[in-house]
Each structure stands twice: as C-alpha cells, then as structure tokens.
C-alpha cells in the first residue's frame, strides 16, 4: 500500500513526458496527409505521361500502316506528312486548341487559357495531375485524329493544301467538338458519354477524311469502266506491323483516359480493350471468308483496328462480354463496308470511313445498349444504364444525337475548308506529279531510291563470274542443257 503513491506519481510523470510526443504526432498528421496526396499525384502523373507516350507511339503505327498501303513511289511522302501532322498537332493544340477544348466553361467552346499559360482556367481539370500532363495526353489524341484524315488522301494530296487543313483542324475544328463533351460543354451537360474518343477522336478524323476524299477524287486508275480496280499497297507486312503498333499504343489511349492510376481501375479498361480487339480480328476473318472466300490479311488487320475504335467510347462502361460483342460486330462489318465504300466510287486507301467512322458511331451508340450502372458510377461521368440493363432508351437517345451533332459540325466544317483550299492554293497534285510519285515530285527524293534510280554501291559489283546470277536465276557457270560450258 505504501507503493501506491509512488506508482501514481510514476504514471503521472510518464503521461507528462508523453504529452509532447502526442502533440508532435498530431502536428505531423497534416504533413503525412500531404505526403500521401503528393504521392498519389505523382503516381497518377506518371501513369498519364506513360500513357501519352504510348499514344505518341501510335504515330509509328499509322506511319507503317499508311506506308504499307501506299504505293512504293509515295512511301517517303507518307512519312513526311506523319511528321508534319505531329508538329502541327503539338503547336496548334498548345497555342489555341487546348484552350478551346478545355478552357473556361462555355457551352460551345472554351475561351481562356491560351498558350497553356495558367492552370486555374481549366475547370474540366480542376484537380489532380498537373495541367502539363493533361495537355501532353490530349495533344497526342489530336495527332491520332489528324493521321486518320491523311489516310484517305494517300498518293494524291498536295502538301501545302493539307498543311493548311491540318492547322485549322487541330486548332479549331477538333477542339470545339472535344469541348462539347470533355471540356464541360453542352453534350457533356446532357450526359453524352465517350470515355476515350470513339466519336471525338476517330469519328471526327473519319468525317474529315470523307470530306477530303470526296473533294480530291479517286487516284488515277482506281475506277475503270465503272468498277473499282484494286490498287494494292506495296508492303502488307508493314501495314500489319502498323496495326500491331496501334494495338500497343491503344493500351495508353484507353487505359490512360482514366487520367489517374490511384483509385481508377485502368487495368479493367485495358482488358476490355484487348478483348474487343481480339474479337474484332476474328470477326473480320469470318467476314472475309464470307465475302471473298479467303482470309484477306488486310481485312483482318482493319478488323482489329475497327474493334479498337468501337470499344474506345464504352471501354469503361461495359462488362467484358459486351466488349467482345462490340468488337466482333465491328470486325465482322469491315469487309462489306469496305466494298460498300468502293461502290460509292470513293477512294479510301486505308478504309478510314468504315474503320474509324462507322465503327466510331457503333461504339458510341453501343453505350446506350450496354452501359452498366456500377461502372457509370465508378467513372463519375453521369449517364444512365443501357437498355440491356434496365435503363430504358434515355442514354441511347443522348448518344445518337451526340453523334449526329458531331457528324453535322465536323463534316460540314471540313468540307467547306477543303473546298476553300481547293479553289485557292490547290488540294491535289497534278496528274504528272501523281504518276511520277509524290516522293520525287514533292520531296525531291525517293523513299526507296534503289527501286527507281541507279544508286552507286546499291548492287553488288565485281562478283566472281561463277557467282553472277543469270536472267533465269540460275548460276551462269556449270553445264548447259547441251552439255557445253558457258
């Protein structure tokens, strides 16, 4: 009993000594929270930048796809325009495009934040990752859309005319439609949904491509006696390599559109993306067998791309089984749509209209059928479940008039701009230039010089006579059929 006062005194002393530590811990809590927030922002930023790099790599995919599907005499010109596309997309989107798409809260277009000067005028990106990361991610989307436009104009478009179009498209046409949904504009307010750009990126590119192809007209020799004549690309392996590169880039295209890594299941989006791509390739293979009685390699590649386009809008809103269905329908539709476009006497070398246009419409509208309530809530973008999940036709109607608005605006603006260019600086090269090839007529060099001109050292010289090939491919040395020596 005598020890009790001592015990109480000891406990009191311990409590007194512990108070500064407890107070310090309380003071450190905000610091820890700030560190956690910084870590989240850093993680999210890293993912978005990595995704942007993957999307940037899609320029290589479009380059290989379009080079492979062009003729050999135009291969260098294709790659030149890929680089021009990228440069224009970056500079125009930095200077005015990003502000129009995401600056301010106007219903039709943004009006603040020119040249990316401040980060407090972009309400669509009011928190989270730095505005520079957002800009980088969005700018490579513009470059993708521009690459689609050029694809339908291969082998015959004049560089100067195309550059003028690209400047206006990247700086004004594309950003306006992007603002309608992603920038808080009128379609977004109506809960129109397009998670990663089936309509905003791909349909817009296809609409501009359609306008350009109509005004340009077909390549020389494409239609004879009222029938389409195949003009095969010079390298199918390059074209299919391009399709595979696009598949890799699409992991960032769709997955990165979460704009976050922490608390966002971007892996689920990527799984849906790949399920659709696989079913699209298989669907195109089946469609090719039905249409052509053969497995057309180019159609299979286009089927994969068409499925990727289709799943881009709904990738975060649908279950995996729906992703498979959406991709399969897009792939199966490619072969008959490609033939249908040719029957309209439209020369579309890469299939931009069916692959990026019709598939973009299908994927955007599919949200109205297959959107899942829980997924919509997780995305936090509004909207109602699709018809197959008891949501009625409300979301479907929003998706339909959103597509119609995009078609009306982008096609009209692009057609008018192309017409203006045609009757001012000119849009199409001369017949002589087209026949010679754009490599030499517009750029002064060949993509494959050894194919067209004598290049010193290109062919082996001073070979031993026994090693020189004969015209038939056999060695010059050895016995002839009569037994004499050569």
Main β sheet profile = 2 strands, antiparallel
Cα end-to-end separation: 126 Å
- Poorly predicted runs of 5 or more residues: 8-19, 21-28, 467-486
Query: What's the CATH architecture name?
Result: Orthogonal Bundle
The residue-averaged pLDDT reads 88
Number of strands: 2
By oligomeric state, this entry counts as single chain
Strand content: under 5%
- Rg, Cα atoms, Å: 29 Å
CATH superfamily membership: Ammonium transporter AmtB like domains
Tag the structure with descriptive keywords:
two-stranded antiparallel ribbon; single chain; 1% strand; mainly alpha; disordered C terminus; 2 strands; Ammonium transporter fold; globular
Architecture overview:
- With about 475 residues, this protein is mainly alpha-helical.
- The protein has helices at about 5-70, 75-100, 130-150, 160-180, 185-190, 200-215, 235-255, 265-290, 295-310, 320-345, 350-370, 375-380, 395-420, 430-435, 440-445, 450; strands at about 225, 225-230.
- The protein has a single domain, classed as Orthogonal Bundle (Ammonium transporter fold), CATH 1.10.3430.10.
- About 65% of the residues lie in helices and about 0% in strands.
- Helix 1 (about 5-70) packs parallel to helix 3.
- The relative contact order is 0.12.
Secondary-structure blueprint:
Layout: H1 4-69, H2 75-102, H3 131-151, H4 159-181, H5 186-189, H6 198-216, E1 223-224, E2 227-228, H7 236-255, H8 266-292, H9 297-312, H10 320-343, H11 352-370, H12 373-379, H13 394-422, H14 431-436, H15 438-443, H16 449-452
Antiparallel strand pairs: 1-2
């Amino acid at each position: 009993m005598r020890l009790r006062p001592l015990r109480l005194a000891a406990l009191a002393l311990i409590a007194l000594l512990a108070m500064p530590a407890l107070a310090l811990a309380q003071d450190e809590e905000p610091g820890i929270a700030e560190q956690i927030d910084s870590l989240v922002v850093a993680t999210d930023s890293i993912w978005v930048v990595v995704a942007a790099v993957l999307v940037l790599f899609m320029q290589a995919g479009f380059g290989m796809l379009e080079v492979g599907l062009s003729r050999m005499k135009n291969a260098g010109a294709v790659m030149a325009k890929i680089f021009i596309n990228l440069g224009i997309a970056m500079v125009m989107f930095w200077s005015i495009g990003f502000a129009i798409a995401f600056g301010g809260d106007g219903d039709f277009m943004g009006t603040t934040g020119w040249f990316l000067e401040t980060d407090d005028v972009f309400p669509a990106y009011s928190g989270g990752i730095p505005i520079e990361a957002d800009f980088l991610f969005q700018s490579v989307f513009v470059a993708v859309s521009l690459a689609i436009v050029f694809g339908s104009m291969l082998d015959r478009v004049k560089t100067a005319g195309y550059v003028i179009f690209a400047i206006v498209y990247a700086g004004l046409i594309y950003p306006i439609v992007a603002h309608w949904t992603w920038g808080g504009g009128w379609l977004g307010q109506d809960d129109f949904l397009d998670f990663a750009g089936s309509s905003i990126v791909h349909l817009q590119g296809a609409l501009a491509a359609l306008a350009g192809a109509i005004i340009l007209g077909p390549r020389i020799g494409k239609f004879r006696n009222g029938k389409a004549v195949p003009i095969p690309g010079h390298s199918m392996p390059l074209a299919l390599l391009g399709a595979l590169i696009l598949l890799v880039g699409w992991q960032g295209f769709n997955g990165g559109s979460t704009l976050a890594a922490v608390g966002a299941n971007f892996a689920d989006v990527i799984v849906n993306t790949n399920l659709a791509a696989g079913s699209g390739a298989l669907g195109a293979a089946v469609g090719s067998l039905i249409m052509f009685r053969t497995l057309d390699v180019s159609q299979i590649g286009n089927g994969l791309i068409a499925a990727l386009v289709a799943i881009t809008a709904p990738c975060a809103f649908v279950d995996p089984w729906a992703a498979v269905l959406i991709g399969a329908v897009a792939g199966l539709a490619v072969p008959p749509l490609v033939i249908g476009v040719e029957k309209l006497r439209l020369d579309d070398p890469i299939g931009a209209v069916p692959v990026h246009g019709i598939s973009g419409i299908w994927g955007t509208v599919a949200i109205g059928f297959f959107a899942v309530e829980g997924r919509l809530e997780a995305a936090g973008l509004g909207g109602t479940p699709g018809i197959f999940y008891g949501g009625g036709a409300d979301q479907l109607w929003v998706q339909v008039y959103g597509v119609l608005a995009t078609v009306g605006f982008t096609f009209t603006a692009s057609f008018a701009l192309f017409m203006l260019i045609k009757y001012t600086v000119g849009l199409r090269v001369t017949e002589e230039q087209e026949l010679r090839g754009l490599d030499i007529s517009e750029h002064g060099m060949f993509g494959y010089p050894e194919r067209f001109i004598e290049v010193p050292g290109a062919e082996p010289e001073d070979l031993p006579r026994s090693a020189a090939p004969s015209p038939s491919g056999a060695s010059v040395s050895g016995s002839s059929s009569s037994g004499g020596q050569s």
